[in-house]
Amino acid sequence: VSIHRTDCSNVADLKFHQGDRLVKVSWDPHAKSTFLVNIQIEALDRSRLLSDITSTLSDQEVNILHAAVNTTKDQVAFSRFTFEMADATHLDAVLDAVRRIEGVYDVYRITNS
Fold first, then answer.
1. Which of 11, 36, 40, 99 reaches 20 to 30 Å from 46, CA-CA?
2. From residue 57, how far is each of 7, 74, 86 by CA, in Å?
3. Domain count, the chain
4. Which of 87, 106, 113, 94 is nearest to 44 (CA)?
5. Residue 10 CA to its chain's centroid (Å)
């Protein structure tokens, strides 16, 4: 069994070739499970940037599992984080909070595609 998001690039192909095998599913909104989220943050590299990002994520009550930061010669920091979340609807608030950090150019979810 594989579950795909509706915006997954594989869904259109599956509908065309194997549409009779597709079943619509939904998640139990009251379930007490967590899921993993991967995000990338692009920001001006500066002192305390990593501290500000991790503090903001912690303030949003996500559990950080992995972090990696690389900085270009142009002083742009590319940070990738993996964290656990209990509620998918909370992701927009998390991304908005990160966008408000000084020097952040962009933040977005990374999906496996």
1. 36
2. 26, 25, 14
3. 1
4. 106
5. 20
Rg for the chain (alpha carbons), in Å? 17
CATH of the domain at 63: 3.30.70.260
Q: Do residues 66 and 110 make contact, with C-beta atoms less than 8 angstroms apart?
A: no
Q: Is residue 22 part of a domain?
A: no
Chain center to CA of 5: 14
Task: Give residue-wise pLDDT tens across range 34-51.
Answer: 889 999 999 999 999 999
For residues 109 and 37, what is the distance between their CA atoms, to the nearest angstrom? Answer: 7
| Amino acid letter for position 38 | N
For position 29, what pLDDT does the model report?
A: 65
pLDDT single digits (tens) 47-101: 999 999 999 999 999 999 999 999 999 999 999 999 998 887 899 999 999 999 9
Residue 49 domain flag: yes
